[in-house]
Amino acid sequence: MKLILIGFGAVGQGFAEILLEKCADLSARHQFSADIVGVVTASKGNLYHPDGLDIAHLLRTAATGSFMDYPESEPLRRDWDASDMIRRGSAHVLLEASPTNLQTGQPALATCHLALDQGLHIVLANKGPVALDYASLREKAAAAGLHMRYEATVMAGTPTMHLAEDALAGCEIRSARGILNGTTNYILTQMESGMTYAEALAQAQALGYAETDPAGDVEGWDAAGKGLILANALFGSSLTMHDLDVTGITDISSRDVDQARQSGQRYKLIAEARPDGGAVSPQRLPLSDPLTSVGGSTNAITLDTDLLGRVTLIGAGAGKLETGYALLADLMAIQRAT
Hints:
By secondary structure, this protein is of the alpha/beta class. Helices cover 42% and strands 20% of the residues.
């Protein structure tokens, strides 16, 4: 497979590291091999080589903050943007791993449409296009006989979409509810151990779980984007962010957490997706609920099915290698299906 990678931050570099480390094993055990022929970034520069970029050099120069020192080799191009690579290059798959925009989905959304128009499969870690334009992208991919995969958009490499769409094929999924944001789960876990909200948030920021501006996490919008993906993908909905009732954890106090504990309950920020809609809100769950055992930055989801009852999946919801792995898993799924 020849790949164009949009974005080379933590996720893109994690994916590249996996390819570099596991290339021999992937080839021997799964007959899978891939070359990154193009990389497009907002700050480091762009690179395209039809025979594949040297991943070790790519990672080494990215660590300096610029691709300027990536070695010259004909016919390397540094002046092509994403459109040039898609239209004029020789790639099979576009990997979208640039920062998420949950307001418009752009510029990633336009890039994904262009890739499908030009006959490329698309694999996304960027939530924006899938959350905001799922139906259109899915319809266009299907009409062209192409694949759109997006495992990384919900729980990083923990195989949420594979479980729901493949492993549970034949079941009717009646609802999905889960802990889909690790930052807020970490904060609530620390508050239960005695920290105030402000102290727990500061610690989450110090550990890199929360951004300097944590609003997207603590106000529930990151979880809402993932819930929207689940609602539209699992139930064929056409919901938008305006259709979701979203409440974050900013008003949860230490007293609230203590009262829940005294009642045999635990606060969790829960994203819910149902055929008739969805919501995000902090909820007091009984300790018998499997979601209450999920602490720290870990994510979890419970799928309510007609044949198996409730099936709960627990795993990492973020991380460099974890999310990079989701891209690899989607590429291997495309290989198996083509």
